[in-house]
Amino acid sequence: MFGLRFCRVRGHSMAPTLSEGAYVLLRQYSAGRRPRPDDICVFRAASGQTMIKRLIRETEPGRFEVRGDGPLSAPSFDLGPVSVNDMVGHVVFTIRPPKAERNSRDRQPKRG
């Protein structure tokens, strides 16, 4: 429907920009809206995992360096450049997780 879809954020690689449990509304890239640096993008990594990261720069035509906003995010050289063909879409709207859900995560004991 209009190239839009919802996804739920899992993990902390984009914190504090996006919290675990947040929902993001994605818009598919198109000829009229190509990827550009600073977009927050959902893509399929080479591992097959769906990831959400920030586009840093175009390393070659149609391929972007990516990085999470969080300090524990995997370094971009571990992920390699991401092809435009593997991009699901870019974030256009965010819905924070419900307060009760945020509070229950905050009360959970830390591991490790």
User: In CATH, what is the homologous superfamily?
Assistant: Umud Fragment, subunit A
Structural class, from secondary structure content?
mainly beta
Q: Tally of extended strands?
A: 7
Low-pLDDT sequence parts: 107-112
Strand order of the largest sheet: 1-2-7-3-4-5-6
How many domains make up the coordinates?
A: 1
Radius of gyration, whole Å: 15 Å
| Overall body shape | globular
Task: Determine the N-to-C terminus distance.
Answer: 43 Å
Biggest pleated-sheet summary: 7 strands, antiparallel
Q: What would the average pLDDT be, to the nearest integer?
A: 86
Can you tell me about this structure?
Residues 107-112 have low confidence and may be disordered. The chain has one domain (4-97): Umud Fragment, subunit A (Ribbon), CATH 2.10.109. It has helices at 76-79, 99-107; strands spanning 4-8, 23-27, 40-44, 50-60, 63-67, 82-83, 87-95. The radius of gyration is 15 Å and the shape is globular. β3 and β4 (50-60) form a beta hairpin. The protein has 112 residues and is mostly beta strands. It is built from two helices and seven strands, in the order βββββαββα. The N and C termini lie far apart (43 Å). The protein has a seven-stranded antiparallel sheet with strand order 1-2-7-3-4-5-6.
